[in-house]
Structures are given as C-alpha cells and as structure tokens.
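REQUEST FORM: STRUCTURE PREDICTION
Request ID: SP-0412
Submitted by: Lab K.M.
Chain count: 1
Length (residues): 239
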Amino acid sequence: MTLAEHIGELRRRLIVSATVLVITATVAFVVYPHILNFLKEPYCNVVGPKRCVLYVTGPLEGLALRIKIATYGGLFLASPVLLWEAWRFVTPGLRRNEKRYAVPFILASITLFAAGAVLAYYIFPKALQFLGKIGGPSLHQIYSPSNYLGLIVALMAIFGITFEFPVVLVSLQLAGVLKPAKLASWRRWAIVGLTAFAAVITPSGDPFSMLALAIPLYVFYEASILIGKLLLRRRTPSG
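STATUS: Completed
RESULT:
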C-alpha cells in the first residue's frame, strides 16, 4: 500500500470502531440501572441489602456517573470489534507465519481480560471488608457512587490489563526478544518482581487483591515459558 492507502485504511477502521463504540455506549446508557446493580452487588454482599446505599453529593453527579458507566460499558462491549479492526489494519504488514497467530492471540487477549475482570469482581468484597475495618471501629463508611464505582472499575480494568501478561511474554518469545531458557533462569527474581508489582499497582491496597493478582501472574509466567517452548519447537522444523 501507498501512504495514502494506509491513511485511508486507517480512517475506515477508525470510523467502524467509532461507530460501534457509539452504538455499544448507547446500549450501556440504556441498561445503566442493570450495570449499576451489578457493580453494587459486592458492596451489598458486605453491608447487606438494607444498607446497600450510595450517596450522591452533587446535582450533576448522577448524570456524570451514567455517562461514565456508559463509556466504560461501551468500551467493554465493543472490545472484540476494536481488536478485530486493529488486527485487520496490521494484517497486510504481517508475514504468513505471523498471521496464523493473530486470531488465537486476539481470542486469548479477550478471554484473559475477561477472566481478570471477573476475578477482581469476586474478590472485591474482601477488599471492602479490609478497607472498612482498617481505619478502626469508630469510623462509619458512607460511599459516594463516583468513589465506589471508580474503585471497582479501576480494579477490574487493572486485573484485566495485567492478565494480558502471558500474551506479551509469548509474543516476545516468538519475536526472538526473549528465550524460554532465559525466562526460566529469572524465576526467583520474577517472584519478587511480580509480587512487588502487584502490591504497587493494586488500587485498593489490600492484601487480598494483591495476592489475587500476584499468584496468577506467576502462574502465567510459568505457563508462558511452557507455551513459548512448545510454539518454538513447532516452528523450528519449517524454519
């Protein structure tokens, strides 16, 4: 392709992605009450249904919250299409042996992100219990929707993004940047580094979330070494 053709192709992909995002965000805006109830469920499990109330502190906060949740929901619903459009844009520049990995990598990315978000959702009640008690019994918790939903969405997003870790490691091995043997020799440092990383990046700062992130990351580290070895062995005979 010429430069003008590349720009035209990029514009088409961006238009499709933006159109899909507007549609999915509109859907999320309409079903906002259901999304809100879903995100409130961990809080309700901790305090009970009668006390499960979020307090709005400003007249515009409800509207701003609905727009924010619609945007997040739209991005989540549109993510398969966004990844597909990104793949279609880069496909012409890939070699034949690289193209065959594209679809599995996209599917793995979506699955791992969803798994990370689900794990964060289910361990969030433990985080809330810890945060509610750490300040002492004299403090009474009153949550605003922005603070509460900002925390749970951030936790789910961070878990989802960091669960892409094995995809990155396997990609680097296939590209020849890293070797499985080198990764295996870094195991001890990986344990320390991944634990420290989980402690720093976890927005809630509680030990439950930190361990829930650090343990899968190390499992992914070991799995990436095995997958890298397997894929490199399969690719070696054909050159």
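NOTES: The mean pLDDT is 87.
Reviewed by: T.R.
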